[in-house]
Design a protein that fits this description.
Elements: H1 2-22, H2 24-32, H3 37-74, H4 88-106, H5 119-123, H6 126-129, H7 132-167, E1 178-184, H8 195-208, E2 213-219, E3 230-232, E4 248-254, H9 258-262, E5 266-269, E6 282-286, H10 287-293, E7 303-305, E8 310-317, E9 332-336, H11 340-343, E10 348-355, H12 363-373, E11 380-384, H13 385-391, H14 394-428, H15 430-438, H16 443-476, H17 488-514, H18 518-523
Parallel strand pairs: 4-9, 6-8
Antiparallel strand pairs: 1-10, 1-11, 2-10, 3-4, 5-8, 6-9, 7-8
Helix pairs in contact: 1-4, 1-7, 1-14, 3-4, 7-14, 7-16, 7-17, 8-12, 14-16, 14-17, 16-17
Length: 525
């Protein structure tokens, strides 16, 4: 936001400088008639403030229209997003920032007042001699605009590349045609011995009987939720760690069929069975756990000690990203949901069902199946697994959209600034261009002359911008996935895009310069 504001202010200052150059004769007349420099400063300041206030009003209207879409986009990643409004405090802050910017940058033309003479400009001689310092200032402003837009553009391209890689990351499960719903288990209705036979098992039986349901299961926590339920463990035969908390694994309660429903591959051993957890204590581990503790040895039949009891490993499943697509899989130990007497009762669980039909069509059937077992049982957060996956990316998607908008605005403003500077330069050099053409210069030569100036300004801005982007990459490091903040391909893309925009912004003034009529151009002298 700060960079876009600076680019906009630099553009306004550039336009005001151009306008001031066109008003040199007017200012000289005012000075000749006795106007003090303080009065002229006040005039420039009032004109700048009028622009700032008009911009604030227009910006507030645009923000009011756009706010609904941004709030909807941020609703899954920002708490209390629905309470975000364009309040009076926000408008007041915008007005103060805009007025301060207008004062700071709107006074740029007043720096040239000391160069305004009276005699030279009144006789026309000043037209040929003035403007060198102002042109250098305007060029410097454009270079700064380009540099800042390169910083934003590089950040946006880095986020796009990282986001595309993240979308292709293996989550460890298959989200298609899977419906989920959360079911809280009340403390006062079911004890540890009755929750499985009286609530969970009947619910799963009824869900599996729904027409169109291929499989169903229950798990205490869905994957990719950025939520944790973990505990310590020991593996018999391994050296005891110095720190008991160094061996922490993610704990899940799961039913038979949940891995098949979620598309998690069974790599070794078997799934949970109906008798598991009643007369035997078994667990299923993930691939990361097996790799860390049973390298080169089959873990099936080995044991894991958790809080005293020993649990036999009966299966190994593929890794699932528990904490997000951008986070590595952690060690995971899954218990059968019937083993509540040993490991306790999960107070919240997620039902999952895979269907041959569009998952959302069976939402009512799922609720009916749950309430046929327990009439007052709440069912909430009914979502498809694809929605769960998409929701985990909302924070990154919001950052990406915002930075893309900022980068697009910045690039457009920079192109407008470059176009303005080159156009003004062509206007100032029209007599010179006319002389060149009269002496035999071809239109192509004139175009190359003008294009060279635009490319020079763009090249300086690009170099400064890429240096700034390298510094910004440290800030963006936590937002990037699978791509370095100094990724060469990204910098090449940004350079190519900026070159295309710079050539497009310079082409029209160059084309106009190549068509200058030397007779008309020299007549202005």
């Amino acid at each position: 936001v700060g960079l876009v504001l600076l680019i906009a202010c630099a553009n306004v200052a550039n336009l005001l400088l151009a306008r001031a150059a066109a008003r040199q004769r007017e200012v000289s007349i005012r000075l000749a008639l006795g106007a003090g420099r303080t009065r002229l400063v006040r005039q420039f300041l009032v004109e700048s403030l009028v622009l700032s206030i008009a911009g604030t009003v227009l910006g507030a209207l645009v923000a009011r229209v756009a706010l609904g879409s941004l709030v909807e986009l941020a609703s899954d990643s920002l708490p209390f997003a629905s309470r975000i409004t364009l309040s009076g405090h926000v408008v007041l802050f915008l007005a103060l920032v805009s007025i301060a910017s207008g004062i700071a940058f709107g006074l740029a033309p007043t720096a040239q007042l000391g160069r305004f003479g009276t005699r030279g400009h009144l006789t026309g001689a000043g037209k040929r001699t003035a403007g060198g310092a102002q042109q250098r200032l305007r060029s410097a402003l454009v270079v700064g605009e380009i540099a800042m837009s390169v910083v934003l553009l590089t950040g946006a391209v880095l986020l796009i590349r990282g986001f595309s890689l993240l979308l292709g990351a293996n989550a460890g499960f298959e989200p298609r045609n899977v419906l989920t719903a959360h079911v809280p288990i009340p403390n006062n209705a079911y004890d540890a011995a009755s929750v499985a036979p009286k609530l969970i098992t009947p619910i799963l039986d009824r869900i599996r009987a729904i027409p169109g349901v291929e499989s169903a299961g229950l798990i205490s926590m869905l994957p990719i939720q950025e939520a944790y339920a973990n505990g310590s463990y020991t593996v018999p035969g391994e050296p005891q760690p110095v720190d008991a908390n160094s061996r922490i694994a993610e704990f899940r309660f799961a039913s038979d069929g949940v891995y098949r429903t979620l598309g998690v591959p069974l790599l070794a051993g078997r799934d949970f069975e109906v008798t598991d957890g009643v007369n035997n204590h078994v667990v299923i581990i993930n691939q990361t756990f097996a790799r860390n503790h049973f390298q080169g040895v089959s873990p099936i039949g080995r044991t894991v000690a958790i809080g005293g009891p020993a649990f036999t490993i009966v299966g190994v499943v593929g890794d699932v990203r528990q904490a997000g697509l951008d986070q590595p899989s952690l060690e995971e130990i899954d218990f059968p949901y019937r083993d509540t007497l040993t490991v306790g009762v999960p107070r919240d669980a997620a039902l999952v069902m895979k269907t041959r039909l569009p998952a959302t069509q069976l939402s009512a059937s799922l609720r009916d199946a749950v309430r046929s077992v327990s009439p007052g049982q709440p069912v909430y957060r009914e979502m498809t697994m694809q929605q769960v996956l998409d929701q985990s990316l909302t924070g990154r998607r919001l950052n990406l959209v915002l930075l893309l908008v900022f980068a697009g605005v910045a690039l457009a403003l920079s192109a407008a600034g470059l176009y303005g500077v080159i156009s003004y330069l062509v206007t100032q050099r029209t007599p010179e261009i006319g002389v060149r053409i009269a002496l035999g210069a071809r239109g192509r030569d004139v175009m190359q002359l003008v294009l060279r100036q635009g490319v020079l300004l763009s090249g300086i801005g690009l170099a400064l911008g890429l240096a700034g982007a390298a510094a910004l990459s440290r800030v963006l490091r936590t937002l990037l996935y699978g791509v370095s903040g100094t990724d060469p391909a990204t910098y090449v893309v940004v350079a190519a895009l900026l070159a295309a925009v710079a050539i497009a912004a310079t082409w029209l003034p160059a084309r106009r310069a190549a068509r200058v009529d030397p007779v008309i151009a020299m007549r202005t002298e």
